[in-house]
Amino acid sequence: MRRRSLLIAVPAGLATLAACGDEDSGSSEASDSPSPSASQPSAAPSPKIVDGPLPAITAGTKLGEKPTIAKGSGDPSKDLAVKTVIAGNGGTVAENDYVQANYLGQVWATAKVFDNSYDRKTPLVIQLAQGSIIDGWRYALAGKKVGSRVQMAVPPTWGYGTQGNSQAGIKGTDTLVFVVDVQGTFNAKSSAKGTEVAQDSVDLPKVGTNTDGKAPSIEVPDTDAPTKLVASYVLEGDGEKVGAEDSVLVQYKGVLWDGGKEFDATYTNKQLASFSLQQVVKGWAQGLTGKKVGSRVLVVIPPDLGYGDNPPQGSGIKKDSTLVFSVDILAKM
After folding, report:
1. Please, are residues 100 and 73 in contact by the beta-carbon 8 Å criterion?
2. Whether the Cβ atoms of residue 122 and residue 10 lie closer than 8 Å to each other
3. Dist. CA 239–CA 236, nearest whole Å
4. Do 303 and 329 touch, CB atoms closer than 8 A?
5. Rounded distance between C-alpha atoms, residue 84 and residue 158, angstroms
6. Beta strand pairing call for 57-59 and 262-265
7. Which residues contact 240 (CB under 8 A, 6 or more apart)?
8. How many other β-carbons are positioned within 10 Å of the β-carbon of residue 101?
9. Span 31-67, pLDDT tens digits
10. Measured in whole angstroms, how far is the alpha carbon of residue 94 from the centre of its chain?
11. Whole-model pTM above 0.70?
12. Of 77, 140, 162, 324, which is most buried, counting CB atoms within 10 Å of its CB?
């Protein structure tokens, strides 16, 4: 049975998204906006995917531009209509991947825009998994490539169902139209891709620089553990800096300073971790704040910023342990 991440103080992650809002990352914009997340797992059968009909994109036709979409003409298909408007040449999106995308959603019959990420200037990062996102997205984006613009018309069966989404003004009979610009895809084989930074200190652990999706090595020196937090680049990415109230998508590996034994790792669990920096131990929150997306970071956490004298039961962490992490920051959420 997969262990719950030891880092999480309270339940977190994309599976806990409410139907009408992103996870609580400290952003009022996110919490007030109806993202395409699912409120509950769907029992709907797999849809038949058809080419149309789909309304025209009348402005903002380039990848990354906020699109303007015409009102739907006539009756929409009862099937899931999907069209690749711009074909990308990046990695292929698979079900259960985390996808990073900008999007706009509107109602077919009225052309009322109920949500878009372009104005927020923050792309959505969400897992294409049952119960995390509406089924229309799951089926429409699987197999698409990064760098693509995808348009879809989602009937209620594969959207918000007969209950609709009252906060967004979506009725249970509404077909929804989305334009999605796919910026990235991440899975258990993803790694940071930054530039190597010299690891010169003989008193600090050395972290491997492989970017093949496998767990990096962590070599802990035979010296006394530092008494203050250490947070330094192993690979420095070129993405945005992470803020103290942001949420992140990461790969990580944690070992004990004493003995170097691994106690937790996404690589071992074969599942990425996502959480708000307000929901983790202080050493993680302080160590990752200000670091760039796309980076691998060495974080050494003294007991007072970790678990102190109250480590999680069954974790293998003793009281007053110094913790050593390699953290790949894949995306900011």
Report:
1. no
2. no
3. 9
4. no
5. 19
6. unpaired
7. 292, 293, 332
8. 26
9. 345 678 765 666 678 999 999 999 999 999 999 999 9
10. 14
11. yes
12. 140
